[in-house]
Write a structure and sequence with these properties.
- The chain is mainly alpha-helical.
- It has one domain: Glycosyltransferase.
- The strands form four sheets. A three-stranded antiparallel beta sheet has the order 5-6-7, with no helix packed on it.
- A hairpin with a 4-residue loop joins strand 3 and strand 4.
- Helix 4 crosses helix 6, helix 5 packs across helix 6 and helix 10 runs parallel beside helix 12.
- It binds glycine (GLY).
- Glycine binds next to loops.
Length: 391
């Protein structure tokens, strides 16, 4: 059982504050539009301001996703116009296979091109998203039954998947529904089963990455890349697990997805500091001199709101109230209120922090991160209306 009554020092966000927070965020997106219509936003800010970049990073879908959310929030056609310009950039990227040799096709193509198709019937969006789904399944290994995250296909040092990939699977379910070809969804289901079998530890914390044996397909070991150490709990990995399970449950009403959602959420809640925004790794708790990762709180809020829509009843009320508390904390303490401070939406995210035990490249520590901004605005949008998902 999840303890929903834990003693957090945070009030749920009110409807009036949802409106105020969304209006502020959308005004910030509007202010940023001239800088990032023909270029993309870097994965993270530098001294709280995002540099522009080419459409080459795994994170480039989040800014256009914010633009689509801003369009839905405001009805302002300027957002639609800008987002459709970006769809052309994503079509170009997949047609020319520019930096697509990795698994992050869902992060790239769901909030941009699937959104464009669903919201305004953009045919190029649909075409690009189906090409991206095709690219994603090209990374599937039948030996081990998983989608390889990074690196050259089949290379022993990268014969692994990562928990984040759960967020790439909705693109595959969408592609099957759209084309009538079950091959995409079949791979999504197999990959989700592999994740469930190996990525979750007995205490319901998670491994970030998991290696399989290239010869036998047997599970080998979990290893961190961006967490503090192999057997600690990277906060964002846990958050991807929570939202990923809710999304898997949307496409397949399997009881094990539902239970795993609660288990992962329960671990996440137990390790939160009193303001509900985790440190970057959940080995750190109240009082640690370590940066937070505000994006993890925004991701979990979206997962709660997704699951609430699926289950209904009293449990849905518990999930929604908890989501309002996460978003309340983000709005009160972490959201950007003054554009001279930052051109992002949410401060205190952490992309990759180096530790003595991990293998990541240090980037974006205690900064805005593009997915943190996106999921914060998605959570506000979900709280403000009956939202039809891009995922
Ligand atoms: N998917 C990589 C990250 O969350 O940083």
């Amino acid at each position: 059982m999840i303890d929903f009554k834990q003693d957090f020092d945070v009030a749920p966000i009110s409807d009036a504050d949802v409106k105020a927070a969304g209006d502020k965020a959308v005004a910030q997106v509007l202010r940023n539009l001239p800088d990032y219509t023909y270029s993309m936003q870097n994965h993270s800010s530098v001294d709280r301001f995002y540099p522009a970049c080419d459409n080459t990073q795994w994170t480039c879908g989040f800014w256009p996703g914010e633009v689509w959310l801003a369009y839905e929030w405001s009805g302002n056609e300027v957002f639609r116009h800008a987002a459709q310009i970006q769809v052309q950039s994503f079509l170009h990227r997949i047609e020319n296979k520019i930096e697509v040799d990795h698994h992050d096709m869902g992060f790239l193509y769901s909030p941009t091109c699937v959104a464009a198709w669903k919201l305004v019937g953009d045919e190029d969006g649909r075409k690009a998203a189906i090409l991206a789904a095709e690219q994603l399944i090209s990374r599937y290994h039948s030996v081990g039954r998983f989608i390889q995250a990074w690196g050259q296909m089949g290379a022993p040092e990268n014969y692994r998947y990562i928990i984040d990939c759960l967020l790439n699977l909705p693109l595959l379910y969408w592609a099957s529904a759209e084309t009538g070809d079950s091959k995409y969804a079949d791979i999504a289901r197999i990959h989700a089963a592999t994740t469930l079998a190996h990525s979750i530890r007995p205490d319901h914390s998670t491994y970030h990455t998991f290696f399989m044996d290239p010869e036998t397909g047997e599970p080998v070991r979990g290893e961190t890349c961006q967490g503090y150490k192999d057997d600690s709990d990277w906060a964002r990995g846990q958050a991807w697990g929570v939202y990923g399970m809710a999304l898997s449950y949307r496409y397949d009403r399997r009881e094990d997805y539902r239970q795993t959602f609660d288990h992962l959420l329960g671990f996440f809640l137990k390790r939160l500091p009193s303001d509900m925004v985790p440190y970057w790794d959940m080995i750190f708790t109240d009082g640690a001199e370590e940066p937070r990762d505000s994006s993890s709180a925004a991701i979990v809020a979206c997962g709660l709101l997704e699951m609430a829509d699926l289950v209904g009843g009293p449990e849905a009320q518990d999930y929604r109230l908890l989501a309002r508390r996460f978003v309340g904390s983000l709005y009160q303490t972490y959201a950007v209120k003054d554009p001279s401070v930052s051109n992002g939406l949410v401060l205190h995210g952490t992309y990759s922090k180096k530790s003595p035990h991990n293998t990541c490249t240090p980037e974006g520590v205690d900064e805005c991160v593009s997915w943190g901004d996106y999921y914060y605005l998605e959570a506000l949008t979900r709280l403000s209306r009956n939202w039809s998902s891009y995922w």
